[in-house]
UniProtKB/TrEMBL annotation:
This is Protein rds1. Residues 1-21 form the signal peptide. Keywords: Signal. Coiled coil: none annotated. It comes from the Eukaryota. It holds the Pfam family Ferritin_2.
Amino acid sequence: MASSTSVRGTALLCLINAAQAIPFASKAQTTFSVATSEPPVVPHTDVTSHGPYTGTPTTTGALSTSVLASAIPHLPPPDDAYDYPADGKLHGDQPAPFTPSGGLGTNGSEPVYRVQSDFDYQSLALALYQEWIELDLFHWGLATFSDEEFEAYGIDAEDRFLIQHMANQEIGHATVITNMLGAQAPKQCTYNYPVSNVAEFIDFNQKLTRWGEAGVYGFLPHLNSGPAAQLLLQSITIEARQQLIFRQFGGNFPMPEWHTPGLPQSWAWTLLAPYISSCPADQTRLVWQNFPALHVLNQPNPARINGSDVWNETTGGYANTLSTADIPEDELCVNATGVGSNCEAAISNNRSIPLSYPGRQVFLEWDDPGKVVGPNNSYVTSASCGQPLFAAWVSQLNVTYTPLQNISLGDVNSAYTVQPNMSTWEGDPAVNGTMFLALTDLDLYVTPYNLSMLNPHVAALAVYQAG
Ligand SMILES: *[C@@H]1O[C@H](CO)[C@@H](O)[C@H](O)[C@H]1NC(C)=O
Ligand SMILES: *[C@@H]1O[C@H](CO)[C@@H](O)[C@H](O)[C@H]1NC(C)=O
Ligand SMILES: *[C@@H]1O[C@H](CO)[C@@H](O)[C@H](O)[C@H]1NC(C)=O
Ligand SMILES: *[C@@H]1O[C@H](CO)[C@@H](O)[C@H](O)[C@H]1NC(C)=O
Ligand SMILES: *[C@@H]1O[C@H](CO)[C@@H](O)[C@H](O)[C@H]1NC(C)=O
Ligand SMILES: *[C@@H]1O[C@H](CO)[C@@H](O)[C@H](O)[C@H]1NC(C)=O
Ligand SMILES: *[C@@H]1O[C@H](CO)[C@@H](O)[C@H](O)[C@H]1NC(C)=O
Ligand SMILES: *[C@@H]1O[C@H](CO)[C@@H](O)[C@H](O)[C@H]1NC(C)=O
Ligand SMILES: *[C@@H]1O[C@H](CO)[C@@H](O)[C@H](O)[C@H]1NC(C)=O
Ligand SMILES: *[C@@H]1O[C@H](CO)[C@@H](O)[C@H](O)[C@H]1NC(C)=O
Ligand SMILES: *[C@@H]1O[C@H](CO)[C@@H](O)[C@H](O)[C@H]1NC(C)=O
């Protein structure tokens, strides 16, 4: 622990090496009046170049070793899964006063804040790619659009400082993940954003932070390293707040859903990769799959007074982020008058005309696999399923399937489906908020902890703006 002054009362976590230590629960000031040095952050640059990658990649395809089977087999639950009585009584001796028996990582063994498996490494590396893009994206928007352009959407100087602050939070998130990964941790890349004005910037941010958030929720409870999960959890809760704030800046109801969905890593990577242009030469690659893009032709547009009255108003597949290009000024909600119609940046806005609703026909087009995508165009989209037959609505705690209708395959693959009418709980319509839509060849029953079992059946993927 070279740089970690062994001051009594100072607890420092020793990670890969001393230079990467994270000070934790530092109480040095209460013991000695010595100034503790500020722990260094990971190297980063303020503005990287932007725009699509035009070169030829030096390598292609996801990272892989020997692949043992085409899918993970379905097994029954563990034998002891129902053994614990769950009757409110204590069933074991207490290891210490006021301490129940059980739990993981509770026996006093010293926590080690590092990845412990390929699963851990690849998951945290994915999360790091996400933190890096957010750091750049938030700065880029502030540098690209004028104060007047922000103010036209009700985003004033104090709001812009909050965006600046959210970018800075990403430096901390990138640092903590880099420290847990070690020397080969992915570095900052260059990016391209499907955005040409403030409304599109804010909408892209609220969608991107949603898949960043949901992407981590999907793997967090599966990590081998509980200590790594702990630190990542304490970063992703900030990301969740950023998502909500960008919804507020976009004039949306801040959090219509009662639960946030979790996503498999390959879904998060699928949604993220298209916006990464190129990465440094020695960049660590990922194992995850890139699915083909799903285009929601009538993706609800939160910039409109009637967000569901819309045709082909996105800036492309995957994020399906809003475009304002075709909206006449009198159909924009930002300057509309009246409660329920106006959507200027606010703590909360009622959307009296719902963005989407049960029974809505949703028109879809999707790409064939085999397209190059992601950093240096060095990953290739793939799908191992047959012809898609269902739309999987991944929202809150539920995955619900609706049949695809009028399926047409060819130069353009298209179909439509109808938004389902179901509730997670009484009073909580399941399909709401910024959520996810996948096309699948099977209506496989999956739940939040085994959603990745759906991967072999996924044909294409999108963000859906349900509310
Ligand atoms: C304590 O728990 C850790 C896992 O958190 C385990 O690896 C270790 O063997 C346990 N130690 C003892 C003494 O049981
Ligand atoms: C909304 O109205 C204000 C005041 O008239 C104006 O300055 C602003 O540009 C308008 N915003 C948009 C997006 O048109
Ligand atoms: C989405 O949630 C909001 C907030 O609870 C609610 O007002 C709205 O009606 C919901 N949308 C739908 C389509 O159920
Ligand atoms: C990606 O592009 C960068 C910049 O041109 C280059 O340094 C790097 O080697 C490329 N990586 C791959 C995998 O092609
Ligand atoms: C909003 O647009 C939808 C789709 O075109 C339409 O069915 C609905 O009646 C509109 N709502 C209002 C209040 O105009
Ligand atoms: C949607 O818009 C894009 C670009 O504006 C255009 O190329 C495409 O053909 C349109 N698609 C449909 C189904 O209208
Ligand atoms: C906002 O929407 C809720 C739910 O539809 C409704 O109960 C409430 O009256 C609305 N508030 C205003 C100020 O319109
Ligand atoms: C959705 O289901 C609820 C409860 O069954 C019902 O009251 C409502 O009318 C349904 N809405 C639509 C659009 O089918
Ligand atoms: C679906 O296909 C049928 C038969 O070709 C056609 O009549 C109907 O209009 C189509 N529906 C939509 C929504 O495109
Ligand atoms: C949605 O998820 C909840 C919680 O797991 C479950 O109780 C409910 O039955 C699910 N609803 C549907 C329609 O699948
Ligand atoms: C996922 O888990 C649920 C139980 O929560 C189980 O019923 C279902 O069969 C599992 N799905 C797969 C594909 O393993």
